[in-house]
Structures are given as C-alpha cells and as structure tokens.
Write a structure and sequence with these properties.
Blueprint: H1 3-8, H2 12-23, H3 27-36, E1 44-50, H4 56-71, E2 75-80, H5 89-97, E3 107-112, H6 120-134, E4 139-145, H7 149-156, E5 160-165, E6 186-189, H8 197-214, E7 217-218, E8 224-225, H9 227-230, E9 240-242, H10 251-268, H11 270-312, H12 318-329
Parallel strand pairs: 1-4, 1-5, 2-3, 2-4, 5-6, 6-9
Antiparallel strand pairs: 7-8
Helix pairs in contact: 2-3, 2-6, 4-10, 6-7, 11-12
The protein binds guanosine-5'-diphosphate (GDP) and magnesium ion.
Length: 330
C-alpha cells in the first residue's frame, strides 16, 4: 500500500510520518498532501483560543472525550504553541494532562511549535489539519494561544471558534485581544469554580453586544460586505457558557453549542463561506511564500542585504528599498 492508502485506511504510523514530513517541510510530504487533498472537506474544524493558563488544554481534553462518547467520530487535536520550544515544559504538561485520551485509537494528538519564517506556523498548521481531515477524523480541535495575529488567524478560520476566558481577580474581563471576540462563535468562561465567573459572563455579554455589531462579513468574492447586506444571512448569537474543565462541568453544554453552530452553518450556507475564507487564506499565504522565495532566488540574498543596509543607514525608507528592489528586477 502507498502512504496515501495507508493514511486513508486509518494507519496511525503512516499519518504520524506524514505529519513529521509536513513539519519538516519535506517535499515528499507535500506531494502526499496533494494526493490526499480531494479527500478533505468533511471534518468539522474547531478552533479553541484564549489566554495562556485559561484552561484550553484541560478543556480540549474533556471536549475530545465528550465528542468521542457522544458522536463516535474520531477526534484529532492540534496544539499550536509557538511559545514552547520542542522540548519545552508546556508540551510535556499537555502530554501528561492528555493522558486520559491515551489508548483511545480514535484520538490523535499533535503538538506543534513555531519554526520557519513568518506565516510558516499558519501554513504548517493548515497542512496538518488537511492531513487529519483526509485521514477521516470527524472533529479537528485546534488549540491556539490567543495572543499573536497568526494564532488568532488560525483560530478564526475554523468552522467553529471557541474563545475561552477565565475569571480575573478584578472585575474586568481579562482583556480579550481585539479581533478575537468578533471571531467567537461560542464563549466559555472556564474556571467557573473560582470567584468572579458571573462578573466575567456579564462583562463578556456587554463586550459581545458591541463586537457583534462590528462583525466583519465577507461575500463570496472575499470582499467586505456592509453589516446591513450581511444581515440577510441569519444571525448567530454566540452563547456564553460557564465551565469547570478540571471537573468536566459544562462540557456537555459546550458540545451542544458546537453541534448547534455546525447545524446553523450548514443550514445558512456559512459552512461554504468559511471553507472558502480558509482556503483563500491558504492560497494567499502560499502565493506570498512562493513569490518571496522566487524573488530571493532570482536576485540572491546579497541584493536583499544591500537594500537592508540602505535602510539601516537611513539612506532609504523600507518602502523605498522594496520599491527599488522590485524596479531593479524588471
Ligand atoms: N480552578 C480551575 N482550574 C483549572 C480549570 N481548568 C484548568 N485549570 C487549571 O489551570 C491551569 C492551566 O490549564 P491549561 O489547560 O494548561 O491552560 P492553557 O494554557 O490555556 O492550555 C492548570 O493548572 C489547570 O489544572 C478549572 O475549570 N478550574
Ligand atoms: Mg495549553
């Protein structure tokens, strides 16, 4: 059997090998992915994002168990943590916490750390998600720290984006990064066993009312629509749930909300729109990477350094340097 056939047949070792090839940006991995791509598009992608320590990994663990129990479908977990180096403690911690899932052949966990160039993490994550999708995983949970732009982008391109918040000591919601709340389909106040959970729910409620009105909507051509035009699409009001991930409380309700959102997307055409947004981002990201690579190959690294020199010495602005690099190319 070929690698593709083995992956499609559910061979975990074959899948693990492909994931390693993808992370190493190995050319044979990409050709395997190309063969697998026609088999993607079935998985429900769930982005889970929030501040470090809000309880994402604990919740993802519980969520995976509940999805397995209730739907029987297989679950893949992609933990994206750019802050942790390969041997870092956070990954180890995640692995230990995930031990409830160990031994379940229907669950596959992959931790990813940042490497490579700008946008590299988003591209690699997209490829890993495609691999799980083609391998037949019904649910793909993508845990990202809601900190950097890249991570927010990864989370918001999922079919369902879950934003996790933990109660803070003060009365404010711990500042959720701008842009993330607008992307939320489901909000979870985790650590509801700690004081301040109800305050956090109230604060999120008012923040959400603002955010929903500003929610950007793209039409089929990727153009930004006005809110009035977009309101033709039936609105989804993101529910705000409370959970105690360590005890498994609120997880059943979270699965209910995720399934309701999935049904909403299917009924209203939102699923195709999100797929298109996500794949569009993937195409643009790759195009950018290829163009840059082709440019540097044709000009050599030397010209780039000369241009950087001229910026460092303030002889040109960054924009001028790029313009003259592009002019010299023709
Ligand atoms: N009190 C309480 N602690 C929690 C809860 N969920 C997670 N934690 C703890 O919060 C810490 C961070 O959890 P983790 O899942 O690693 O958070 P992440 O960084 O967002 O992935 C761990 O010590 C968890 O045991 C909860 O519902 N209540
Ligand atoms: Mg974590």
């Amino acid at each position: 059997m070929t690698l593709v056939e083995r992956i499609r047949a559910g061979d975990r070792l074959a899948l693990a090998r492909l994931l390693t090839q993808i992370e190493n940006e190995d050319a044979s991995g990409f050709s395997t992915l190309t063969e697998l791509f026609p088999h993607t598009g079935r998985a429900h992608l769930i982005g889970i994002t929030g501040a470090p320590g809000s309880g994402k990994s604990t919740l993802v663990n519980r969520l995976a168990l509940e999805l397995r129990r209730r739907t029987g479908a297989t679950v893949a977990i992609v933990a994206v943590d750019p802050s942790s180096p390969f041997t870092g403690g956070a990954l180890l911690g995640d692995r230990i916490r995930m031990r409830d899932l160990a031994g379940d052949q229907g669950v596959f966990i992959r931790s990813m750390a940042s490497r490579g160039a700008l946008g590299g993490l988003a591209r690699t994550t997209a490829a890993v998600v495609d691999a799980f999708d083609a391998a037949g995983y019904g649910w793909v949970l993508i845990e990202t720290v809601g900190a950097g732009q890249a991570e927010v982008e990864i989370a918001r391109t999922a079919h369902t984006t879950v934003v996790i918040e933990a109660p803070s000591a003060g009365d404010d919601v711990q500042a959720i990064k701008a842009g993330i709340l607008e992307a939320a389909d489901v909000l979870v106040v985790n650590k509801a066993d700690l004081p301040g959970a109800d305050n956090a729910v109230r604060a999120l409620q008012s923040a959400l009312e603002l955010a929903v009105n500003l929610r950007p909507v793209w039409d089929h051509h990727g153009r930004l629509e006005t809110v009035e035009a977009a309101s033709a699409e039936v609105a989804w009001t993101p529910p705000i749930l409370k959970a105690v991930a360590t005890q498994g409380e609120g997880i059943a309700e979270l699965v209910d909300a995720i399934q309701a959102h999935g049904a909403h997307l299917l009924a209203g055409g939102g699923r195709q729109r999100r797929d298109r947004d996500r794949l569009r981002g993937e195409v643009l990201g790759l195009l950018g990477a290829y163009l840059l690579e082709a440019f540097l190959e044709s000009r050599g690294q030397g010209d780039l350094e000369v241009a950087v020199d001229s910026v460092v010495s303030r002889r040109s602005s960054p924009r001028q340097a790029v313009e003259s690099l592009l002019r010299a190319r023709r």
